[in-house]
Amino acid sequence: MPTPWWRNAVVYQVLPRSFADASGDGIGDLPGLTSKLDHLTDLGVDALWLTPCYRSPWTDAGYDITDHRKVDPALGTLADFDRMLAEAHARGLRVLLDVVPNHTSDQHEWFRRALAATPGSPERDRYVFKDGRAPDRPPSNWESRFGGSAWTRTSDGQWYLHLFAPEQPDLNWRDPRVREEFAGILRFWGDRGVDGFRIDVAAALVKDLREPLRDVVGGEGCEGLDDFAANPDHPFLDRPEVHEIYREWNRIFHEFDPPLIGVAEAWVRGDRRVRYIRPGELQQAFNFEFLRVRWRAADYRRVVAESIAAARSVGRTATWALNNHDVVRQVSVLGLPRGVDPRVWLTTNGTDPPADLELGTRRARAAIMLVLALPGSAYLYQGEELGLPEVADLPAQVLGDPKRSGKDKGRDGCRVPLPWTRGGPSFGFGGPRPWLPQPRDWGDYSVEAQRGDPDSMLELYRSALRLRREFSGNESFSWDDDRNVGDVLAFRRGEVLVLVNTGSTTAPLPAGSVLLASSPLEDGLPADTAVWLRRE
Ligand code: TEU
Q1: Alpha helices in 106-155 (DSSP H)
Q2: How confident is the model at residue 226, as a pLDDT?
Q3: CA 327 – CA 199 distance, rounded (Å)
Q4: Its Gene Ontology molecular function terms (predicted)?
Q5: Cα–Cα distances in Å, from 287 out to 4, 235, 323?
């Protein structure tokens, strides 16, 4: 049987609002994406994952949906979507959509009807409405991932659950109408021709709603996603019943030929994560471990070993990511001193301490060569191929992310519209005023400025992706025990020997022809550098 396309794919995440703006209104759109698809084929990726483009009041970057079967008018129409899909397929690019089953927008027809209906009504049962412990006390201590209580009181005194913003009420997955609705949504987009789905907040759909509701021990909300020690039977995260949903979805995926795929966004640790990709369930699960470690060979070694072993234990491949639309961009993170929390750093507008972007870029170049040499799928986030740093100094008045508080500046800084050209209004993004302002030096990061410059981040990505095609089908991986010590990470992929030096001194470089190096090599492998060698 041929290897399914996704096992070792490179998937490029598109945030449509910030990718390219064809209408010129400052908001990226689907025609804009279509017009720039050649950038993705030129880069050499296999697929794109489109974050939500559905009808939405856009409180949480489109993760608050009012109609899962329509395109948001700011982004285009269904016809624009079909054109984008056809153009992507014509170029051999697969397309994954985001499906958001944990919650809807509070403007969704279902929620409006639920609010208008009485407590205990079937309308309310599609969501999670409960009486408080007292008139002014919520039903439990569950906290929203965006801060504060996960419960909001309605005008008749009942409370509704939202693990994210109050504008994102949680659905009740014990209600068969919710299951049917999502089965319909998957088939709707499957019939249009998409290749699969990224599943938002995949671990949290089923809640234990038996009364009285149980508090989370330690008072943690979603922040404690991987702290199951205090909550072995967590009331709303990673409950066993959630897997029945994915077994059903997998049956739906197999109504299509070739079958669709599902990628779980589940912020849970390895041994729990692999349960989502057991045979009969989903195909892949995001692996966020590289986002938790910071430039130390020993940590990367542990993450690589554990992730590969976990995926293999269920016959799947691992996934890898250095960036996404929820986290501070890696170029900035890797330029911060160890011990500085990037989110805390952001609250200083990136001034305390300043990020060393030269160092961060050098390390990010090495890091992507590590990622692209590993077996399994790599998920890239738009702009990382340009080496974009976090825009840490966005002024307060332009920030829109609901995940914001005195302690958290939010996620806007990694979502600034892309620069395509050296100059011009919005550096080729589209109209004169993008929805988030671009820094003045953005033109230096543009595709135009980097294309053809052998030292640029873009050309490094292109070269790495081209070379990767030669070995990506071969899933073999083995550590090079002699060299894989201290600050040097060393392993073999087929004929290729991969070395990454996270230390501060030059390491020995074995004989072999250099396929690619993240920085110029000296008489050895310099600090903060990766190399791919072919042994002679
Ligand atoms: O994120 C799920 C999630 O748990 C996030 O809160 C994540 O932990 C956090 O952003 C890390 O800083 C998904 C989407 O990726 C995110 O953009 C949405 O806001 C969220 O779901 C709600 O739909």
Answers
A1: 109-116, 122-125
A2: 53
A3: 18
A4: hydrolase activity
A5: 19, 23, 11
The residue type at 32? G
Angle at 516 between CA 485 and CA 512, to 5 degrees: 65
| Residue 369: DSSP 8-state | H
Assign 426 to helix, strand or coil.
Answer: helix
pLDDT of residue 219: 54
Distances (CA, A) of 193 to 51, 61, 77, 88, 182: 17, 24, 16, 11, 17
Say yes or no to pLDDT of 432 above 60: yes
Distance CA 89, CA 37 (A): 10
Closest residue by Cα to atom 18, ligand 1, is: 63
Q: Is the pLDDT of residue 325 over 80?
A: yes
Q: Is 325 exposed, middle or buried (CB count within 10 Å of its CB: 0-12, 13-18, 19+)?
A: middle
* CA–CA gap between residue 482 and residue 499 (Å, rounded): 12
Query: Which domains does the chain carry?
Result: 5-103+176-466 (3.20.20.80), 109-161 (3.90.400.10), 474-534 (2.60.40)
Please tell me the distance from the alpha carbon of residue 494 to that of residue 487, in angstroms, as a whole number: 23
Helix (H/G/I), strand (E/B), else coil: 290: helix
Residue-wise pLDDT tens digits, 477-513:
999 999 999 999 999 998 999 999 999 999 999 999 9
Ligand 1 within 6 A of 267 CB?
yes
With a CB cutoff of 8 Å and minimum separation 6, the contacts of 341 are none
220 pLDDT more than 80: no
pLDDT (tens digit per residue) in 452-464: 999 999 999 999 9
pLDDT in tens, 251-304: 999 999 999 999 999 988 878 899 999 999 999 999 999 998 999 999 999 999
Decide if pLDDT at 245 tops 70: yes
Please indicate whether residue 164, judged by its CB atom, sits closer than 6 Å to ligand 1: yes
Q: DSSP E strands: which ranges in 51-91?
A: 54-55, 67-71
Residue of minimum CA distance from atom 14 in ligand 1: 200
Identify whether 255 is a catalytic site residue. Answer: yes
Say whether 536 is catalytic.
no
How far is 106 from 278, CA to CA, in rounded Å? 34
Cα(65)–Cα(59) distance, integer angstroms = 9
Per-residue confidence (pLDDT) for residue 450, from 0 to 100: 98
The mean predicted confidence, pLDDT, of the chain is 96
Pocket test for ligand 1, best of 50, 66, 164, 167 (most atoms within 8 A of CB): 164
Backbone angles phi, psi at 277, to 5 degrees: -120, 25
Do 380 and 11 form a contact (C-beta atoms < 8 A)? Answer: yes
